[in-house]
Task: inverse folding
């Protein structure tokens, strides 16, 4: 844990790769780059390489599985709303993008009915800027939507690429370069072979790529608002419009996916909070506070997307859910012209009109928005009015203070929602198991947990939940005295979530039971890294050190435990035991030893006094 | 030490397969055929590689044939143990194949096996019906062209013991503990060996600019 001697570059890189192989992720990369900034490029190269190789070993959960007419080939994407697979539609021998939604994401029957209706409505939409939905259905416990396979990448990845380039794009060709070099198209192309009949999308006039970048943004926005206007006229709103839901075909045509899939804020919440944050950043204030989704909220989301396309920054995003919600509810985004002088006032005005907190003050409909964008493109005056400083202040004063309360309620909601999504049958098995466990009926508890795990396997996106149940399972095995099995369960849980404190504690304690004290120590090392004020962990690790004969370290830990809970009887007993095992019998020796270990005078008096008292 | 908990579906399929449920068997094989085929392709030695297309499928089919016969004596504890079991059969089948070709026997294992029917309690089933052949399995054709084949080509450049370590860990899903037991080494030693092998694979990938080709980074 503590580096004792300087390492060579090669050794550092080896260490880094080892960490990656042990399940390290982007945070490992950032960690190393932070520690050795000059080696960033080397780390990044290794990181991407490991990622590519791991991809080559990854198991496609559903590969080879038939879902109704579709044979799943391989995973091509993953997001908050489901996993997208490349699939072969057998009767037609065509490749499609098959989006599979786990049942666990759709908590109740009302939701299921709504999903069906929405999906049906979406499948009736036919517009050049909307990804066609071929069919929807349910099979093997999953809902699926079969869509046209679009040879292109999402706008989110385009923006990622532009951000990575680090400079403001001059012309539209910057986007073309990204589409051509980024992954999806060549990979799917390779996967399906060259003779695959792509769902064809019309290309744009190639001269578009030579125009200024802003023109491309406006042109894409015009297309997207046209698609929104069409969908709204047909009674479907999107509900979760954001860059990752807009595909950009290789010909530069934007196509919206996932129409009408996320009307309820709850369904926006995925177990991974980062995904949630990603989706939250484009949600309108009324969506967040009152769960209202309509054409006005779609206009907001498009406005937020336009803002990001123009400035390459998300208008409201902060690092956490609460901050983001707060900004959406209360703050105007930083003026785009502050970020780039090149942004015309009229473009600023259009985006600002989309991002009005009050829905009534936004464009009346997506058609009006489209027309205003087209006016700007044609060099004509727009209808949106530039906002002056006074108007800004007035707006701020008008802002509804209640919104923040509602936002606070939503944060709580975001935390509890994964539980809602957790299938009720599974939840029942787990709680039965816990009941049995509490009563000491371990075999029964084990059966319940196993049942829950078996069900969880069928539901994607429940990895974290599975880790928790695996940990429960470990506890039950441990209770039953089957330590080997307990270890396996804890380790499985930790493979899913290496930072799962309860599993680390369980594992550490089991190792203690079987006398593997060194392993107990390493478990609690991790626990204490994650949770440095846990008295019990100091106590447990100290106990393990004592058994290993490492008395100095044991005393240090007991001191930690005493610091966090003065006068703890168990800890005092352990300290006495250490002192005895060290062969220290006189008060002076004992006192000196404790002093060396860092105990304060009063602590030493309390400890030794206690001991004398015991006698 | 760590073992993947048995995938309940796999266990059910194996149980039903043992009881003679042909559907369960074909689902079971469909589930693992890609991984097994991959292991087959990685295990085939260079002299056989030029005939890979036919041979790998032959071996896959032969493997499943053996597996069906031996399934009744097999009690999987984990999914990895099932895969490892299949993987050992692959090894034996390849050895047999090499013996055949060495002895100049030309009768194809595939022809023999596919024409056989298996006696199941529910009646006779043609192996042909249980195992999709290459021509009708777009999955394999597709996957072969994908990222996996790029990685597999790199694996083939490794020394055999290094490749085996990666196969066991990454494709069979064995834990270091299980691998240690297989190899008669300590878990720590196996972990180190594996890491070293993987580092070599990374070096090869870098040399071949794999992450750029695959659009990573």
Result:
């Amino acid at each position: 844990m503590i580096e004792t001697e300087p390492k060579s570059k090669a050794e550092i890189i080896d260490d880094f790769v080892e960490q990656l192989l042990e399940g390290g992720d982007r945070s490992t990369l950032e960690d190393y780059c932070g520690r050795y900034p000059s080696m960033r490029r080397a780390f990044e190269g290794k990181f991407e390489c490991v990622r590519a190789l791991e991809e080559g070993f990854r198991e496609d959960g559903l590969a080879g599985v038939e879902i109704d007419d579709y044979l799943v080939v391989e995973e091509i994407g993953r997001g908050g709303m489901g996993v997208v697979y490349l699939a072969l539609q057998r009767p037609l021998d065509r490749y499609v993008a098959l989006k599979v939604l786990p049942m666990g994401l759709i908590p109740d029957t009302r939701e299921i009915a709504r999903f069906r209706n929405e999906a049906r409505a979406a499948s009736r939409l036919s517009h050049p800027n909307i990804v066609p939905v071929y069919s929807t259905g349910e099979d093997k416990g999953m809902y699926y939507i079969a869509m046209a396979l679009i040879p292109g990448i999402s706008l989110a990845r385009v923006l990622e690429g532009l951000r990575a380039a680090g400079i403001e794009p001059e012309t539209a060709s910057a986007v073309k370069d990204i589409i051509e070099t980024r992954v999806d198209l060549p990979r799917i192309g390779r996967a399906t072979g060259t003779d695959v009949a792509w769902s064809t999308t019309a290309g744009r006039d190639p001269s578009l790529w030579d125009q200024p970048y802003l023109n491309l943004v406006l042109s894409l926005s015009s297309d997207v608002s046209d698609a929104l206007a069409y969908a709204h006229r047909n009674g479907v709103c999107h509900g979760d419009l954001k860059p990752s839901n807009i595909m950009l075909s290789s010909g530069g045509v934007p196509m919206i996916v996932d129409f009408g899939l996320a009307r309820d804020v709850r369904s926006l919440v995925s177990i991974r909070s980062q995904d949630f944050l990603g989706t939250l950043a484009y949600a309108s204030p009324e969506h967040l506070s009152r769960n209202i989704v309509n054409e006005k909220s779609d206009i907001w989301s498009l406005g937020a997307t336009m803002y990001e396309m123009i400035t390459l920054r998300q208008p409201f995003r902060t690092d956490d859910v609460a901050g983001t919600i707060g900004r959406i509810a209360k703050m105007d985004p930083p003026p785009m012209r502050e970020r780039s002088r090149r942004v015309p006032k009229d473009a600023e005005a259009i985006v600002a009109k989309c991002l009005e907190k009050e829905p009534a003050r936004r464009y009346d409909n997506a058609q009006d928005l489209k027309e205003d964008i087209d006016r700007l493109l044609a060099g004509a005056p727009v209808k949106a009015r530039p906002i002056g400083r006074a108007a800004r202040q007035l707006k701020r004063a008008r802002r509804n203070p209640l919104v923040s309360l509602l936002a606070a309620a939503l944060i709580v909601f975001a935390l509890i929602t994964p539980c809602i999504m957790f299938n009720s049958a599974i939840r029942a098995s787990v709680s039965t198991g816990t009941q049995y466990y509490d009563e000491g009926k371990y075999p029964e508890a084990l059966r319940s947990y196993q049942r829950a795990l078996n069900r969880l396997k069928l539901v994607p996106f429940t990895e974290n939940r599975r880790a928790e149940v695996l940990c429960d399972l470990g506890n039950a095995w441990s209770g039953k005295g089957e330590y080997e099995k307990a270890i396996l369960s804890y380790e499985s849980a930790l493979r899913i979530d290496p930072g799962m404190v309860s599993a680390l504690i369980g594992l550490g304690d089991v190792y203690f039971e079987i006398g593997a004290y060194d392993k107990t120590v390493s478990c609690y090392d991790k626990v204490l890294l994650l949770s440095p004020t846990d008295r019990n962990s100091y106590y447990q690790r100290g106990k393990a050190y004592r058994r290993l004969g490492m008395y100095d370290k044991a005393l240090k830990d007991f001191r930690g435990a005493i610091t966090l809970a003065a006068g703890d009887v168990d800890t005092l007993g352990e300290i006495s035991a250490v002192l005895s095992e060290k062969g220290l019998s006189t008060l002076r020796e004992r006192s000196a030893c404790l002093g060396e270990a860092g105990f304060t005078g009063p602590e030493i008096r309390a400890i030794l006094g206690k001991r004398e008292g015991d006698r | 030490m760590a073992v993947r908990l048995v995938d309940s579906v796999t266990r059910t399929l194996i149980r039903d397969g043992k009881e003679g449920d042909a559907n369960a068997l074909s689902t079971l094989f469909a589930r693992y055929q890609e991984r097994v085929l991959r292991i087959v392709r990685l295990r085939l030695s260079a002299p056989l590689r030029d005939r890979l297309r036919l041979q790998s499928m032959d071996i896959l089919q032969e493997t499943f044939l053996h597996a069906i016969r031996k399934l009744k004596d097999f009690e999987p504890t984990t999914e990895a143990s099932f895969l490892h079991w299949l993987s050992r059969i692959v090894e034996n089948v390849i050895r047999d194949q090499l013996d055949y070709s060495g002895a100049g026997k030309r009768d194809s294992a595939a022809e023999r096996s596919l024409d056989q029917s298996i006696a199941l309690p529910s009646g006779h089933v043609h192996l042909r019906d249980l195992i999709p052949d290459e021509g009708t399995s777009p999955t394999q054709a597709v996957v072969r062209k994908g990222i996996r084949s790029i990685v597999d080509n790199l694996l083939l450049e490794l020394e055999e013991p290094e490749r085996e370590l990666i196969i066991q860990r990454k494709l069979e899903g064995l834990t270091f503990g299980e691998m240690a037991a297989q190899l008669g080494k300590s878990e720590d030693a196996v972990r180190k060996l594996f890491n070293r092998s993987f580092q070599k694979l990374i070096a090869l990938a870098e040399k071949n600019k794999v992450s750029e080709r695959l659009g990573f980074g």
In short: Residues 1-6, 103-116, 127-145 of chain B have pLDDT under 50 and may be disordered. Strands of chain B lie at 117-120, 123-126. The radius of gyration of chain B is 18 Å. DSSP finds 13 helices and two strands in chain B.
